[in-house]
Automatic annotation (TrEMBL):
InterPro entries noted in UniProt: Gal_Oxase/kelch_b-propeller (IPR011043), Gal_Oxidase_central_sf (IPR037293), Glyoxal_oxidase_N (IPR009880), GO-like_E_set (IPR015202), Ig-like_fold (IPR013783), Ig_E-set (IPR014756)
Protein's name in the database: Galactose oxidase-like Early set domain-containing protein
Keyword match Cytoplasm: no
Residue ranges constituting the Glyoxal oxidase N-terminal domain according to the UniProt record: 69-466
Keywords: Membrane, Signal, Transmembrane, Transmembrane helix
Coiled-coil intervals: none
Organism placement in taxonomy: Eukaryota, Viridiplantae, Streptophyta, Embryophyta, Tracheophyta
Annotated PANTHER family: F14L17.20 PROTEIN, SECRETED PROTEIN-RELATED
Amino acid sequence: MASVFKNLSFSSSVIPCIVPIFFSCFFIVSHSEYLSLTTSLPSSTTKISNVSDGGEWVLLHKSIGVSAMHMQLLKNDKVIIFDWTDMGPSNLSLPDGAACRHYLFHNRTINDCTAHSLIYDLATDTSRPLFVASETWCSSGALDANGALVQTGGYGDNGIRRIRTFSPCDDDSCQWVELPTNLSDRRWYASNQILPDGRVIVVGGRKAFTYEFYPKKNDESYDKLFYFRFLAETNDQGEENNLYPFLHLLPDGNLFIFANNRSILFDHSNNRIVKELPGMPVAVKRNYPSTGSSVLLPLKMNGVLSGSGLPEVEILICGGALPGAFNSSKNKIHVGASNSCGRIKLSDPHPKWVMEEMPMPRVMSDMLLLPTGDVIIINGASNGTAGWDAAENPVFNPVLYRTYESDPDRRFVVLNPSSIPRMYHSAAILVPDGKILVGGSNPHNEYNFRRAFPTDLSLQAFHPPYLGSLFAPLRPSILSVETRDDTVSYGQEFSVTFVLSVYRADPLISVALVTPSFTTHSFAMNQRMVVLDVALLEHLSTTAYKITAYGPPKNTVAPPGYYLLFLVHAGTPSHGVWVRVQ
Ligand SMILES: *[C@@H]1O[C@H](CO)[C@@H](O)[C@H](O)[C@H]1NC(C)=O
Ligand SMILES: *[C@@H]1O[C@H](CO)[C@@H](O)[C@H](O)[C@H]1NC(C)=O
Ligand SMILES: *[C@@H]1O[C@H](CO)[C@@H](O)[C@H](O)[C@H]1NC(C)=O
Ligand SMILES: *[C@@H]1O[C@H](CO)[C@@H](O)[C@H](O)[C@H]1NC(C)=O
Ligand SMILES: *[C@@H]1O[C@H](CO)[C@@H](O)[C@H](O)[C@H]1NC(C)=O
Ligand SMILES: *[C@@H]1O[C@H](CO)[C@@H](O)[C@H](O)[C@H]1NC(C)=O
Ligand SMILES: *[C@@H]1O[C@H](CO)[C@@H](O)[C@H](O)[C@H]1NC(C)=O
């Protein structure tokens, strides 16, 4: 931690104030209370522990009318949520006179005048139904550099090659836009990643062993497509196990791609595999339908700007299913999922997987980066695979993976359980106040509320432990972000003014940028966290401070777009504020 702040210098006014601040700290939250929160760890003999505050579940809405299969937070604190369009009506009406869709379903003509998408406003806790014209089932997405959602693929003639966009607006005028141009290949279960040049790469999909870019370059034909043998090779007979491949943009500009049980470093500009990484030492399938999840762990600058090197890069992949699990599920035998995680440091000259074990087996769990740099593993089941009625034994407890805990036996912390199963087609995203928005499960064929794992239309928020009241005095509160041209520019200084009632000098305050992910099928596409170098911390008045940080060094580290900026103080994140990086 200290090395992050090696360039840190204090203005002369800060030192004399530390004593009075600690003194007041004693009254607000006693030091021992604070320590017991942050260090109440399992004894070395138990692997699983409960923290004194294991987080809290809040039911926001019993029904939002659609099942949250896909979720994306936009730069105006609104969340776009949608399921599919050709599987029967939803529980959400469209306003009078809005368009209806007519299609054949089980030999019946359906006149569906319901909404299959909505925009949920976090600030007012209200939502507005949206009409989506084409079939979005198992599609993919990414925000572009302007903060508009580029949403690709789906199902059937009416969806599989579609490109839709949604641009955030401050009033109620914005709607889905269906583009006249189509994708070059059929994309059902593909993954997207925004690239340093602001374009989006779309990789894979069922029977689509290819990738392509959106938008195409000027000199490229509209149907330009790249064959990708790696996807053909990782496609298991009858089970696939390589859909929704895990994609992460690395700081050197290459992509990390994981499909089934193999992973590569890929130079997408030259259509070239740079390196195949070793296999994990356990025979587990990680991608749909053996759905595990994957995160690019926080990229910590650690003086990268002054040093000129690139940050260390680590990937964490958890959960999945054993070979044959999907076949078994078709016969109603739901075999136990995997409890294994693999973590690999790609910046090592000879990277290798280091295996860890979660407290319980999991498939179909979402993995989200928290502003603290820890990972929350949430939703999913302990038996079976993704797919319709292919799982049993929901996992109600989220698990915290403490990224920087050096003792592997203390890395996982089991958090408080929900009471709502979040099985196939559930989703979760991080929102600006540090909560996790959770929804969706089993839309089934037409909505079905009587099945064992019924269609779920509810929306919940999980409050991670850092939102507990004991942490409140430690929480920084951002007053303003001072940048040139409203932009955090690559390598340039900018400042954040904030207030803080109890200042603890160690660990110091970090400045983190987090991208809002497009989450579906347990994979948070485009999820990324960059921990910036800090130049200066100034003490302005009793509780006011100003921190000056350097923007990310370059667009391969942080592709252009809108990020949530969090200050993290003593394990406690501020509310995130939006900044534009370019
Ligand atoms: C965690 O808490 C639950 C519920 O309070 C309890 O059943 C379980 O035994 C606890 N686990 C540990 C390791 O203390
Ligand atoms: C959805 O609508 C159906 C039919 O009107 C109703 O039976 C069901 O209770 C509703 N479900 C929810 C979760 O609102
Ligand atoms: C639809 O109708 C055809 C011809 O009548 C029949 O063969 C088929 O089984 C029906 N499909 C469904 C899903 O009912
Ligand atoms: C794109 O796909 C739609 C739906 O399949 C089709 O109607 C349309 O003609 C296609 N557009 C182009 C430019 O090929
Ligand atoms: C990956 O899966 C393939 C196909 O099932 C299998 O042949 C291979 O041994 C597996 N490799 C590893 C590293 O698990
Ligand atoms: C799954 O079933 C298909 C046939 O449906 C078969 O070809 C394949 O070998 C099976 N895979 C495994 C891993 O059992
Ligand atoms: C879950 O998997 C375990 C281990 O394979 C098995 O013992 C158990 O019966 C399964 N449970 C269900 C509900 O399928």
